[in-house]
Amino acid sequence: MIVLSCNNVSKAFVAENIIENISFTINDNEKVGLIGLNGAGKTTLFNILTNNIEPDSGEIYIAKGKKIGYLKQNTIIESTMSIMDEMLLIFDEVIKLEEKLHEISHEISSFTEEKDTEKLEALMDTYSKLSEQYVEADGYSFRSIIKGVLKGLGFTEDELDKPINILSGGEKSRVMLAKLLLQKADILLLDEPTNHLDIEAISWLEKYIKNFKGEVIIISHDRYFLDNTVNRIFLMENKSLKSYKGNYSTFMKRRKIELEQAMKQYDEYEREIERQEEMIRRLHAYGS
User: Both 60 and 19 in a single domain?
Assistant: First the structure.
């Protein structure tokens, strides 16, 4: 099933076209590497997909109910909260649900036989329904999930209480990545996600992406990371986009063949030009 698509999307800034008539589709669970030289339009495409900028023409389709999460490159978070408390903000509704369950549980436990049994039954019914919502929202495990993601990205247990505003730029970038992964987006757009990650954290992120039940588009200059995470490559160059099946290494093999064929065609074209020019020279010589 198609989850995300672009149809003839174009964008120009001032008088310069950045992308022209880009079209592609992304299906369920596809992981895509978006590559190209700096200035090729990769970040512009991400900003179009997330409605941060409007395309000049073309159509964007996002499947109904699909939520996009976008990790911008070099985005710095400013907060006086601790790392753990910042993560807990993501689960604010779950925490409120947890508090409500505690309130109802206390009220139920205080009931005696003399009290209104109908009210007790109503409370029990409400408690049951809220409990189901709590389980579906990972209410019994969200704190462990938070710690698992933070640990995977290189934070130790002792660092979780550190205020964010005293962290380094690299640590703040890892906090932003953790927040994105915990927000349960359906489609992830990751711009250089391995910046500021050590080898162990990169390995953890590779496994996370491979196991992620959704779609991912990754801008990265790390060919080994792309080899271990994606099953398609989008190459952006000359204001256009071309799709290749397979990981980065597979793309490079295909690309090498294409360039060799293009060079061969160019050489044949040059030889044909020389042949035509020689014929013209001979005709001129014959005519004189």
Answer: yes
Per DSSP, the three-state class of 81 is coil
Q: Is residue 36 part of a domain?
A: yes
pLDDT, tens digit, 9 for 90 and up, residues 244-282 = 999 999 999 988 888 787 777 766 667 767 767 766 666
Residues of the chain with pLDDT under 50: none
How do beta strands 57-62 and 187-191 pair?
unpaired
pTM of the model: 0.86
Task: Evaluate whether residue 160 is within a structural domain.
Answer: no
The Cα–Cα gap between 177 and 150 comes to 9
Q: Are residues 217 and 266 in the same domain?
A: no
Decide if 219 contacts 37 (C-beta within 8 A).
no
* Cα–Cα distance for residue pair 255/234, rounded to 1 Å: 12
| 3-state class (DSSP) for residue 107 | helix
The count of domains in the chain is 3
Hey, what are 145's tokens? 């999930």
Write out the residue range of the structural domain in which residue 195 sits: 2-67+185-246
